[in-house]
Design a protein that fits this description.
single chain, about 375 residues, alpha/beta, 8-stranded mixed β-sheet
């Protein structure tokens, strides 16, 4: 039995956590444990997602809530140690009940921990094997109280294996507690992104045919360089720009500014299953991030998805780790260079040799291969 302690709900943006969980569940039962969020249904008793894969919810203080006011209230409540102890007791009770309903007595339990704020739950199974997968700089999203830092360090010390998605994140972990950190980067569901779409036609909400389309697909959050996008929109009136993803409450003013450009199209959230279809009609993919402590540690899933779809990527110089992928990515250090790189990418889109190299890169980084690595860690004696 694997217990997957997730930072996000199952039906949130479909990325590394869900990709790994669904594959690991094919080898044996997996209990996906997610934090309760205000806008989603809660499952305090496990429900079946598919054969061998179960989902349940645990209550948590919403320190990472999208709403600023909710975050402020959560920060105040989290300072009260009695509330934290009571919440921890409820979490342990619910998890033990969930394990009884989804596992078998005496079954070996391993934890795959991405939500380190729940690290105390591993004590429910004293002999449990623990893998701590650090996928983002948790302290780059919002300000977190000191006890969260202590939980982070506890996860780092308790884990039998520690993994990270980038060299930068690995170095940050090792600066706190010197130990081996294995780098397992993100990946892509290659078959879906390289071939899916079939005979389906061009989505009706894309701009009309006739001009090149450049796109960004992902979270529309404050770490995007909206000034850069505005400058690019103004300089490239002959190119249509599409943005697809969940927008954060704090970026409304930025989107309003961009919407003033006739060649900008914000489409909002689209189902994960539809993303490959949109990419079929996009000529180049963007990763226009600002350099922050968060983005410096990012290994972007969209790089692999763009590549599997055969479209070139243009990125800002948001992370030194991205220089490892210079054969696949055009990295811009200024607005002028960003614009020039888009022009270059649009010419490369039609070059079969370049497109084939992108697909080969993506194929080598399929989620299946990533999952096999975690399977080896989680089943060390089998």
């Amino acid at each position: 039995m694997i217990v997957f302690l997730s930072d996000i709900p199952w039906d949130a943006l479909h990325q590394r956590p869900q990709q790994l969980a669904s594959r690991l569940a094919r080898e044996g039962p997996l209990l996906w444990v997610e934090p309760a969020t205000i806008s989603r249904r809660h499952f305090y008793t496990p429900v079946t997602l598919e054969a061998g894969l179960f989902r349940m919810t645990l209550p948590m203080i919403p320190l990472n809530a999208r709403n600023r006011r909710v975050r402020q209230i959560a920060g105040v409540l989290s300072r009260i140690a009695l509330i934290r102890r009571l919440l921890g007791s409820i979490q342990r009770t619910l998890l033990r009940r969930g394990l009884r309903r989804t596992g078998t007595p005496g079954e070996r339990v391993a934890f795959l921990v991405e939500n380190f704020q729940l690290i105390g739950l591993v004590d429910c199974i004293p002999s449990a094997y623990v893998v701590f997968d650090y996928i983002d700089d948790a302290f780059g999203f919002t300000s977190l109280p000191p006890f969260v830092h202590a939980l982070w360090e506890s996860a780092l010390r308790r884990a039998d294996v520690v993994t990270a998605t980038s060299s930068t994140l690995a170095e940050r972990l090792q600066a706190v507690f010197p130990r081996e950190v294995r780098i397992i980067r993100n990946g892509v569901q290659y078959d879906r992104f390289s071939t899916e779409g079939g005979t389906a036609g061009r989505p009706g909400d894309l701009p009309p045919e006739g001009q090149p389309v450049v796109g960004y697909i992902g979270s529309v959050y404050p770490w995007i360089d909206y000034d850069l996008i505005a400058t690019t929109l103004s300089a490239m009136r002959d190119v249509q720009f599409v943005m697809i993803g969940q927008d954060h409450p704090d970026v409304g003013k930025h989107l309003a500014r961009l919407r003033a450009f006739p060649n900008f199209h914000f489409l909002g959230v689209r189902p994960y299953a539809m993303v490959p279809l949109y990419l079929r009609y996009i000529d180049a993919g963007l990763i226009p991030f600002r350099r922050t402590s968060l983005t410096e540690g990012v290994n972007p899933v969209k790089l692999y998805e763009y590549s599997a779809a055969g479209i070139p990527t243009i990125a800002t110089d948001f992370s030194d780790d991205m220089h490892e992928f210079t054969e696949m990515v055009l990295i811009a250090r200024s607005a002028d260079e960003f614009i020039r790189h888009i022009r270059t990418a649009l010419t490369r889109r039609g070059q079969p040799a370049f497109v084939n190299s992108l697909r080969a890169f993506a194929r080598a980084n399929d989620w299946d291969s990533r999952s096999r690595l975690f399977s080896e860690f989680l089943h060390p004696h089998t």
